[in-house]
Amino acid sequence: MSSQLHGKKILIITSNTGIERDELLKPLEALRGFGATVTHGSSKGGSTQTFLQDTEKDRTVESDAKLSDLHGSDFDALVIPGGTVNADTLRQDADALRLINDFVKAGKIVAAICHGPWALIDAGVIEGKTLTSYKSVRADLVNAGAANWVDAQVKECPANGWTLITSRTPDDLPAFNEAIAKTLAA
Hints:
Pfam families: DJ-1_PfpI. By secondary structure, the protein is an alpha/beta fold.
């Protein structure tokens, strides 16, 4: 266990279903391993359903709080896992969009993986940014005003006082988690 993120607080937001298991659990474990305090907030609070490759139900995971009870000012970074259903649900969740905007306005780190950047579109924060995502999300991001989409394991885009970190798939999780930790520790 490392202490490089001791004193840092990270919020991971999800819906209550359709979450890609490793995109929730691997960042949660890795960032705690770096010494951060990590909170998992979900739309309704309570039990959340994870999936493997968007199709196979996996385990349920208890969230720590309901999104409506959380405030961006209490955290240093925000992480948005993928899963098609999860990301599509979050992009329609007023509390998720409010939290994303809280982090952006406060100049904090926002990290999203796979389909997670969909929520950034509806939060209105990707215009002019360079980012990556699951390949099928590319056209949506470009059509919503992203400056550029890149096919890279991880892409960090500092912009207007806040930092956007994105990755493509669960295969990129080690690089994604490391980028979050490195940026947060700086």
